[in-house]
Specification:
By secondary structure, this protein is an all-alpha fold. It contains 12 helices and no strands.
């Protein structure tokens, strides 16, 4: 159970997030993108059945791949660094509260705010998809993976926010990390496979080490029995592990990314005193 001070700090961070412009901009953008994909992408489901809505939802997956990490990274990266620059963090730490409580309050508030934003956008798209015949289980699976992806980048952003001395540096670190993880996803695997002849085992390991690629493999492996959307490495992974094994390993990778940078950020935060 969270202590009273931690709950108060969570509410403070949640209120600050809900008062920020980013919350409404990101919510509206994700809502619009999800509704467009769910409305127009599912028009062929009557003809193609399962394959039709699987391919349509793959578009929503790729929207989440590019958009959700940015939604999580930038507010989290600015969180601690911004208050450090303004002096608010020093005031908070002067109160009878611990570093762990402050860090947990920020993490919890950001998670709740982003979960609300994603629920607002994804919930509307999911409702349209459900009306058009998409099984609720698939909708919930995708939503769960989207939340896990968001948790990964909230923890990573908070780690950058603690490590950087200024808000600008923290945001720069977050943006560079996003570029690297996205660029070294499918494109990086293809380059390594074709140009350098990297072994298949190494590429498979990297697929689950990279949270962006793990998200893609896990979700599309469930949504599409046709492996054409996964590429050669992803197809081999599904063939060897099965869709259930690949999805479980992808979920484990995302959970590890949610926990690891968060613990590192807490350790750095305590050392900074």
């Amino acid at each position: 159970m969270l202590g009273a001070r931690t709950r108060l700090l969570v509410r403070r961070e949640l209120y600050a997030s809900l008062s920020a412009r980013w919350f409404y901009v990101y919510s509206a953008a994700f809502l619009l993108g999800g509704l467009l994909l769910a409305t127009f992408g599912l028009q062929n489901t009557v003809v193609y059945g399962y394959r039709g809505f699987a391919k349509a939802f793959a578009g929503l997956v790729h929207l989440a791949l590019l958009f959700v990490p940015l939604m999580a990274l930038f507010p989290a990266a600015a969180s601690v660094a911004e208050e450090r620059e303004s002096g608010a963090l020093e005031y908070i730490l002067a109160q009878p509260t611990s570093y762990a409580e402050v860090f947990a309050g920020k993490w919890g508030g950001l998670v709740l705010a982003l979960a609300l934003s994603l629920t607002f956008g994804f919930g509307a798209a999911g409702a349209v998809a459900a009306v058009r015949g998409v099984p609720p289980g698939l909708i919930l699976t995708l939503y769960g993976f989207v939340l896990l992806l968001a948790l990964c980048f909230i923890s990573l952003g908070l780690c950058f926010s603690v490590a950087a001395q200024t808000r600008a540096r923290a945001l720069t670190l977050g943006f560079v990390a996003w570029l690297l993880l996205v660029a070294l996803g499918t494109l990086g695997i293809i380059v390594a496979f074709i140009r350098w002849g990297a072994p298949e085992q190494l590429l498979a390991i990297w697929t689950f080490v990279n949270p962006v690629e793990a998200f893609r493999i896990g979700v599309i492996g469930v949504l599409d029995a046709d492996l054409s959307l996964l590429g050669p490495v992803g197809s081999r992974i599904i063939e060897r592990l099965g869709s259930g094994g690949a999805t479980g390993l992808a979920a484990f990778s995302l959970a590890a990314w949610s926990l690891g940078p968060g613990l590192l950020g807490l350790w750095l935060f305590r050392r900074a005193r």
